[in-house]
Amino acid sequence: MTNLMKGAVFIAGLAVAATAGARDYTKNSNAAGIRVGTTGAGLELTLPVNQVWHFRVFGGGGLSGERTEDAAGIDYDVEAKLGGAGVMVDVHPFKNGFRASAGAVYNANTLEAESGSCDAPIGGLRFYEIGGRQYQGGFCIEGDGDFNPVAPMVSLGWDSSLYNRSGWSFTVELGAIFQGDARIDLKSSGSATDVTGGGATVIDTATDPTFQAGLRETEAELDRELDGLKIFPMAHVGLSWRF
Questions:
Q1: What CATH number does residue 214 fall under?
Q2: How far is CA 123 from CA 36, 72, 141, 208, 241, in A?
Q3: Of all helices (H) and strands (E), which one includes residue 161?
Q4: CB 157 within 8 A of CB 99
Q5: Is 106 in contact with 123 (CB distance < 8 Å)?
């Protein structure tokens, strides 16, 4: 059982245990909260329609992470910068803190990539293969990437600030953002020597059509390497209060 599934089971058990103590504080009340998790730190606002149905808006960011991916024998340092904002519909079926949610997220998750060749000395002896051809030199490959700008999201969570006497609650939310495939756009700079088949042709990597065609193949391979990010796990904890 995955950690997300275990968390969901825990939240559901908490909901059933607390059902008997459910109270209605939703009338003429809203809730605001702070949260931190896999998409960074941020704020959220809950607007109840009644005891069962709530609207929620949130936003945040500021978190980043790095990983190394290999494409055609070249290592790329890929940095992900995470964040976004969303609108959710929360259903509290037991009229307590447990909620099941669905909505849409403005997805601000972005990627930055840089090849290991950027650190190679000009005239270095290491060979790099791009599009089936071998190159040598101090050229650099850098790029940016993103995902679908609007992505659906589902989650389970807990926020009892609108159901308890104190109006305060710890919050937790576990879910997934379906952000789609990564789209990487690579650009190259610097000169390189095409040594394929024993040749020694100096090219400008930014304009050479053969090199650029190989770069498009590398983009597609990097996109495949990042396929695991199309469903982004979302997990947050925080604090909410009624006002």
A1: 2.40.160
A2: 47, 21, 16, 18, 62
A3: none
A4: yes
A5: no
